[in-house]
Amino acid sequence: MTTLNGLPAHALLVHFIVILAPLTALLAILCAVWPAARKRLVWLVLGLAAITAVLTPLTTDAGEWLEERVGRSALLHEHTELGDTMVYFSIALLVAAALLAFIHVREVRGKSVKPVASWILAAVVIVVSIATSVQVYRIGDSGAAATWGDLPAAEAKPSE
């Protein structure tokens, strides 16, 4: 996917990742630490994680297509290198969501889950969720720097 309605697809797809990945991460944490939330939200979290995992490589492929058509710079290279790592974070979030769903299914079937296992899973979900959200921020920040550079600084006029 290269363009949508004449716009680079990357510029549109990236907004899905910027919203879905942190939202999924937040909901996953809720499901991990609050059983009542898990009962209501676990399938939504799994679905959002799957959508994020599918959209991530589409977004990075569209970004690589766009990179070939704009002037290369060190900032753009940094952004694309960071962007290429996002697929690992999306997959980790999907695995964490799948584990939450597995725990949920066991609970619904009346099979007990050892408290230690629940706490370990919660810790894993929290770490993966925070890491994913931080990486989204880092990638977005580097993309903004590559796109806009020092534009705000260049427009600022010194006070006389």
TrEMBL record:
It comes from Mycolicibacterium hodleri. InterPro entries: DUF2231_TM (IPR019251). This is DUF2231 domain-containing protein. Keywords: Membrane, Transmembrane, Transmembrane helix. Residues 6-149 form the DUF2231 domain. The chain crosses the membrane at residues 12-34, 41-59, 86-105, 117-137.
